[in-house]
Amino acid sequence: MDTLTLAVFAVLPALVIVGGLHDLTTMTIPNWVSGLLILGFVPAALLAGLDPWTIAAHVGVGLLALFVGAGMFALNWIGGGDAKLMAASCLWLGVSGSGMFLLWTGVAGGLFCLVLIFSRFYARPYAHQAPGWVAHLLEPRGDIPYGVAIAAGALMAFPSCDLMSVFAAGL
């Protein structure tokens, strides 16, 4: 396995971590994160040797996730960056990994929300000593940076997707 292949397959983990951390600290996920994920999928699919039908299935799952995410955004359940990060992650994960992605994202999101609620209740008096983004995160009725859960879900599901099974077979 050459260095270029390893670098291409590290795109998803690296960029979802960047997106999750950016959402945690600024409550936004830059468009370039999702854009680079979409661009990075093409060489990963080609290096993995995915057939055109499997690539089409990945694109279909990504588009479905984008439409569902847009609906959730319209209902004000998630932010626009969350919807795009979710869709770009589903593009990489395809049919085989998206179920685990949704499961892990839900679990991580629930745990993160519980920790955040607990922190907002108990750590609020100490927020003035913390960096500005922590104080903003601890606001009692503040938003929840769901990109953190999306990143955790993508990282947990990535080993189960067909891209990684093809990659692992080549090791």
Report what the structure shows.
The protein has 171 residues and is mainly α. It has helices at 3-9, 11-26, 31-48, 52-74, 80-122, 132-137, 147-157, 162-169. The protein is elongated. The model has no long low-confidence stretch (mean pLDDT 91).
Oligomeric status of the shown chains?
single chain
* Residues in helices, as a percent range: over 70%
CA-CA gap between termini: 6 Å
Tally of contiguous helical segments: 8
Biggest sheet details: none
Rg for CA atoms: 17 Å
Strand content: under 5%
- Please tally the β strands and state the result: 0
Strand and helix order: HHHHHHHH
pLDDT averaged over residues: 91
The global form is elongated
Low-confidence stretches: none
Structural class, judged by helices and strands? Answer: mainly alpha
Topology record:
Blueprint: H1 3-9, H2 11-26, H3 31-48, H4 52-74, H5 80-122, H6 132-137, H7 147-157, H8 162-169
Helix pairs in contact: 2-3, 2-7, 3-5, 3-8, 4-5, 5-7
Short description:
The protein is mostly helical and 171 residues long. The chain has helices spanning 3-9, 11-26, 31-48, 52-74, 80-122, 132-137, 147-157, 162-169.
Question: Which characteristics define this entry?
Answer:
77% helix; mainly alpha; 171 residues; 0% strand; elongated; single chain
